[in-house]
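Schema walkthrough. Field components (list of strings):
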Amino acid sequence: MSPAISPGGRRALWVGFWVFVVFLYAPIVVLIVFSFNDRSTVSFPWEGFTLRWYRAFVENPTLLGALRTSAYVALLTGLATTLLAIPAAILLVRRRFAGKGLVTGLLLAPLVIPLIVFGVALLILFKNLEASTGGLVTVSRYTVVVGHTVVALPFAILTIVPRLERIPPSYEEAARDLGADAFTSFRTVTFPLIAPAVVAAFLISVVISFDEIVIASFVAGEDTTFPLYLFSQLRLPQSLPQVIAVAVVVMGVSGAIVVASEVGIRIADRRLEAELGVAAGEVATLTGGTKGAA
Amino acid sequence: MTTTARVELSAPPVAPRARRRRGLLGLLAAPTGFLALFFLVPVLMVAAYSVGLLTLLPHDLYLSLQPWRDFFASETHVGLFWKSVRLSVVVSAVSVLLAYPIAYALALVAGRRKYTLLLVILAPFLTSYLLRVLAWRVILGDEGLIITLLRDVGVLGPEGQISWLFYSPFAVYVVLAYVWVPFVALPIFVTLDGMDRDLLEASHDLGATRWTTFLRVTLPLSVPGVVAAFVFVFIPTIGEYVTPLLVGGPNGFFFGNAIQGAILQGFDWQFGAAMAMFLVGTVTVLLVLFGRYLNVRAVAE
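Field assembly_structure (string):
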């Protein structure tokens, strides 16, 4: 007898839920199915099963080049984002200082800017830098990395923050009391404990970058990332099937990465809870023991 | 005795306060410096550029409000802005309406499986955006699933088409709602999940029906989640131009397309910058009005 839902309502809600799941997944399934359709346009009718679209993309150098560019951009973005997100998360969780509200606002602000505005802004910034440095700075895959790092940073920070919040500051204090300097206590105590969240932050940044098209379309210059390539091909029906084949592969890989990191972080969290429980118990026994001795 | 020994051992070479301040600066410098340089400064540059405090292209106006005047005087562009506002409002509202019962089911009915099921809902949101848009082309397109089906059952003739189905504003609405709906479920789920269940029990014990409980307890308590979801869909949608380019056809031209066109095709950068700043202003108003509902942290967890 639940006050949230009647038995009939429960049934209706679950039917609705699964209809919703079908609505979410059907288009993706349709796309995957059509990537095996032996027809040169992505449309009906079904003309038999083929793997030729999957074979074709392996032989398409432009496509492979775009994939490589995107992989490079995504890895650099993941690295830069993670390196920036770790100190930012420590700042937000462990420190109190004047102007913290403003700093928090700045760190999360990229979440609330329409990407097109940020794309225009970066283009204007880099064109200015190009003019003032005599062409030393120019729009390329590296400027895309800068843009993607800004976009991914809040997500990375918000991935690390909850994990850091669960780790008692007393652990680091203990390390400091035993003579470790700030960096050593971070490296040997804090970092190993937040490592799962750091990995998740890295993966999320990689996936965001790999799929991002708006910033890339403004500041990629002559370089072509995979989404840009995909976009340019979407208007040409004849090259669509093989593009879809690659995209299905990419989608599968990135989906697997995200799900794996989500599941991974949940498992790591449970393990941390368990460890913290044990540690708290030990501390209690120890203090109890000392008191008894005194 | 032991206390003194300990102090001597761990006595820091620098006074703790100075050390802490240095540590703070060290943590602060990289992330805020990076965002100041590559986020704050560029956005301010757009503002400066739109009024000619800064010029880049040979034909750029120096210190002039002309781009802004042009924008406000242009019925086409102001009209496109409102068209985008309408799109964003409808897409946000439809996504919230679709996602609310789902979030409700997960948070209050699903029990222990809720996180697994939430992941099932969220996973499509984390796959390629372009791909999900593309999928709808296969469904709504000229030779797509729906048209072929309608031809097969004889509702349409062999060459029959439905003009509003694809390359139309309708397609933009459908695709964007599809793209955003899993994401919308998240903040609503978080507020419902964080709600005190005893309130439902209490309402029930006091004789309220389930509907009354929903309308007078659950729904009001979930307002922050609903508003957050609404805002988080509204903001990206109002500047949306990629989806309209892919599925919108000739009538599916929105404010984002106008900005993108002015910058990447028209080389009317100052005009584009003014429109971009206008979007920033709109978003700022929205955040001032609804900012207190946006508990970003809760969503992340």
